[in-house]
Amino acid sequence: MRLPTFRILRSLKFKPVRYHISRTFSSDNVQTKINEEKLAGDPSLIEFLPSWKEDEEVELRARVTRDMQVLPDFVTEEEEASLLAELEPVLKRMRYEFDHWDNAIQGFRETERSTWNEANSKVLARVRDVAFASPAVGEPLPHTHVLDLAAAGFIKPHVDAVRFCGGVIAGLCLASGAVMRLRHEQHQHLALDALIDRRCLYIMRGTARYDFNHAVLGGEESAWRGQKLPRRRRIAVITRSKPDKHEQ
């Protein structure tokens, strides 16, 4: 089953689930202990917009912070280069698209991959170990979605459709960083930014996955804490959990 990027846009709310994981993973040059503090990501990479007052919806703030996780430097420079080397021959044969059917995304090309070379397979296995270790989140889809966003490209606010993926979205950011904006579906002033920097892993689940839409800001809007964040071509390698059978 091919997973076109924005056939998966649809909003639906589910009750968030709490995950507690302690696990060890390794690759050739990486050995990292994953505990609850590490899995929670770096909270300094999440910033609430001024429109969301500090004393407003305090519990919701805590839930979305827990469920939107950014793990910086998840892959090494060598691992990033290896992933890009495997992807480039495929991507360079494709054109960037600027006329998506619903105008939800501009300046992208995409593919799917279910097999990787040995070194890159270890990196993707590490992603699965971290993001899908708990049986409660379900199994990851067998194919990985590769989204190549041009320097001038952007992704408009959306919620991934439950028909095509389940409760966890885990993305490796390669070649360039970006700012992802999450905005509550019902209360638009409740919003936050996440700095998804180069070589990080971001994980969305629970409240962040279902109650907030998310967007990748374009060049004109791309800023972090008041400073312009230059946007270059960015490649996301995204692993999603299998959709709930009842939603298919």
Explained architecture:
This protein is α+β, with helices and mostly antiparallel strands. It has a single domain (5-247), classed as Jelly Rolls (Sandwich), CATH 2.60.120. The chain contains five helices and 14 strands. It has helices at residues 36-39, 58-67, 77-91, 118-131, 206-210; strands at residues 23-26, 31-34, 46-48, 68-71, 105-113, 144-158, 168-174, 178-184, 191-196, 201-205, 212-216, 223-224, 227-228, 234-240. Strands 3, 4, 5, 6, 7, 8, 9, 10, 11 and 14 form a ten-stranded antiparallel beta sheet that branches. It has a two-stranded antiparallel ribbon with strand order 1-2. A hairpin with a 2-residue loop joins strand 12 and strand 13 (227-228). The longest helix is centred in the middle third of the chain and has 15 residues, at 77-91. The radius of gyration is 17 Å and the shape is globular. The model is unreliable at 1-38 (pLDDT under 50).
